[in-house]
Amino acid sequence: MTARKLAAGNWKMNGLAADLVEAEALAKAFPSPKVDVLLCPPATLIAPMSAKVGGSAIAVGGQNCHAVESGAHTGDVSAAMLADAGASYVIVGHSERRTDHGETDASIRLKTQAAWSAGLVAIVCIGETLGQREDGETLDVVGGQLAGSLPDDCTAANTVVAYEPVWAIGTGKVPTLDQIAEVHVFLRAKLEDRFGAEGAGIPLLYGGSVKPSNADEIFGVSNVDGALVGGASLKAADFGGIIGAL
Ligand code: PEP
After folding, report:
1. Is 11 annotated among the ligand-binding residues?
2. What pLDDT is recorded for position 2?
3. Which of 38, 118, 146, 172 has its CA 20 to 30 A from that of 163?
4. Which residue has a Cα nearest atom 4 of ligand 1?
5. Which ligand 1 atom is nearest residue 95's CA?
6. What pLDDT is stored for residue 1 in this prediction?
7. If you classify domain 6-245 with CATH, what class do you get?
């Protein structure tokens, strides 16, 4: 059993300083939420968002980190820098990074270890493409990504896994509840096999076109411990509807 559910918002490459009002509104609307609430804005907004919501129940996270702490990596941001700016989580291996930046399970594993070294919780994303699902490869694909992306020292406190079917991200298409359940049961068994009691406690999020209107039924699926939310996390009113459903 996982301790608390998690509603994690991924703003992707959206948001300017003026949009921090949404984070402030969320903090005001949920002074003591029943679930953990996290916003992952672009790197430019981590420090100002942390300043705005500091002392509230809203945590702040990054969307990616480099695998090393510092050095000659122009344009990159390290996990230590995210932590220094006020982050307590970082998303690694999002499908958009796997596609746009050629990230592999091996590189995501290193980023996860870098996140831990900086004291961050790593949210490790996995998920199949539409073609892989249609070819009946979903469990093989997510099982391989899970095995390859997670280091050996995963605990319920340092790692969150997000199952995000690539074809459901930003498309408005959502798997059936049975399809979500099948993958989450499979992933939970794999986590328990590899990490024992810790694996039983690692939160398993679903992500892909979660909205206030479908959140309730998705959160009713067993082994769904919360959500990673893209588009619907940009506005406090929408994200609030999802948080309220958990
Ligand atoms: C995401 O970016 O991780 C995501 C799930 O996006 P959306 O909710 O917009 O599908």
Report:
1. yes
2. 66
3. 118
4. 230
5. 3
6. 60
7. alpha beta
The model's pLDDT over 202-236, given as tens digits with 9 standing for 90+, comes to 999 999 999 999 999 999 999 999 999 999 999 99
Predicted confidence at residue 102, as pLDDT, reads 95
Angle (nearest 5°) at CA 38 between 100 and 9: 45
- Domain range annotation of the chain: 6-245
Give the pLDDT score at 4: 86
Q: Classify 92 as helix, strand or coil.
A: strand
The reply, when asked if residue 28 is annotated as ligand binding, is no
CB contact at 8 A, 123 and 205: yes
**Tens digit of pLDDT for each residue in 89-103?**
999 999 999 999 999
95 lines ligand 1 (CB under 6 A): no
- Per residue, what are the HEC states of 144-203? HHHHHHCCCCCCCCCEEEEECCHHHCCCCCCCCHHHHHHHHHHHHHHHHHHHHHHHHHCC
Active site residues: 94, 164
Atom 7 of ligand 1: nearest residue by CA position: 230
C-beta of 127 in contact with ligand 1 (< 6 A): no
Q: Whose CA is nearest to atom 6 of ligand 1?
A: 230
Given a cut of 50, the residues of the chain with pLDDT beneath it are none
Q: Pull the structure tokens for residue 132.
A: 């892989």
Determine the residue of 169, 173, 211 to mutate for testing ligand 1's pocket, defined as the one with the most ligand atoms within 8 A of the Cβ atom: 169
Any known ligand binding at 244?
no
